[in-house]
């Protein structure tokens, strides 16, 4: 063999070795990146139902709720203690409930050793009461926002929003539900016996270390942040629920930091979708599966038979991602989430009406402005990272706008959430939105190379100095800067686009 031939041979052997190793590594990561708990749970733990927090009434007739951020310890997994955060509970929070027209005050005390905030996700309220990154609550301090409930019945939620720390604070367990009622919804005879046939389901994924502590590690090649391999519902691992009625209403909240779920039952039974993020839909829609990205809510009514046994699962959510990122971002994962069973005797509830509410949709003919938001990488909206002092958009109170949301690349999925408004989805990739998006929304999934057009009518709360946020609700992306700010001003105003750099804390 000539010298040249010999080197060529070594070279080919070396290259082949590298190719085989790389392929082996890719195959291994590909296989190990799929998570499934289907068939593996014992469903031994009764589903925890967050208690309803009773308000006191103050001298002005306002409903007053008291909440405290605290450290906690919880035994999620038998025999293992996990350190957590909670809000007036070891993990998560009690449920708040109020009626349209109520004036509310919430006193929020910070008893954890770090600054945080508490944001009312889905609530229509003045920007300075919103609890975004500008309304800091320092350790030991109390923040007391107050506002009037002025929106339809819906399932809203609350969670910390400290810039750069939101994922961490939510993951530790600081989150809860704020359920709103109104006259129309009360008269519809929907299942509304809290904890009996009207059941909150706060769905979160977690990973635990061997010592029981929460793991914050991202999965290999994933670019969305934490994707846990265990599911908690209302902080219950492996939960079961005993139904006593022939219909059960589930208020599902995806309170995970990154994971997208595709909710289905193991026997593929259909159920009725009655509400989206911002309230009841006009007519219930019969569906079999439901995609919810982080921050989104849906209310469904599930039919239950005597001696029933059915498992709510999440089955391989179609992220509309390319093959590899579908796998690495959880798109091939399957989970058993909650077992629902029943005895022989079920209380019969009235049928769900075929008409629920009449929605006063914002009209394309009223649109005064169209804005474009392009989400790229894991930190940019329109090429910019979040800046607490920059006003990105100025909106005129009471006007209607179209927002065009674009995820131009294949690299990752996003979603889009805006504070202070509800929107309606006009189209997804130029086509009519799926049935489960035909209601008020405040958060919407934005698949790779996806385009979503939404329309919103802005409220009348005006403030030149305190902005509302819009952002990706994949919390790691939000923390990395995929967030912007808009202010709402009166017609004809000419506001500063730089915010004063004092913070807008109203602690005492
Ligand atoms: Cu649920 Cu700005 O957040
Ligand atoms: Cu929000
Ligand atoms: Cu994102």
Mean pLDDT: 95
Helical proportion, percent range: 10-25%
Class by alpha and beta content: mainly beta
Strand order, sheet with most strands: 14-13-12-16-21-18-19
Distance between the termini: 86 Å
Shape: globular
Estimated radius of gyration: 24 Å
How would a crystallographer describe the biggest sheet?
A: 7 strands, mixed
Q: What's the total helix number?
A: 5
Count of DSSP E strands?
Answer: 33
Please mark out the parts with pLDDT under 50 across 5 or more consecutive residues, or reply none: none
Task: Tell me the strand percentage band.
Answer: 35-45%
Bound molecules: CU-O-CU linkage, copper (II) ion
Topology:
Blueprint: H1 3-32, E1 45-46, E2 56-57, E3 63-74, E4 82-87, E5 96-99, E6 103-110, E7 119-121, E8 142-143, E9 146-148, E10 154-159, H2 166-172, E11 176-181, H3 183-187, E12 198-206, E13 230-233, E14 236-237, E15 239-245, E16 247-254, E17 261-265, E18 271-276, E19 279-287, E20 290-292, E21 297-303, E22 309-315, H4 323-328, E23 334-347, E24 367-376, E25 380-381, E26 393-396, E27 400-407, E28 414-418, E29 423-428, E30 443-446, E31 450-457, E32 463-471, H5 475-480, E33 483-489
Parallel strand pairs: 1-15, 3-6, 5-11, 12-16, 15-23, 24-27, 26-33
Antiparallel strand pairs: 2-3, 3-4, 6-8, 6-9, 7-10, 10-11, 12-13, 13-14, 16-21, 17-20, 17-22, 18-19, 18-21, 22-23, 24-25, 27-31, 28-30, 28-32, 29-31, 32-33
CU-O-CU linkage binds next to strand 7 and strand 32.
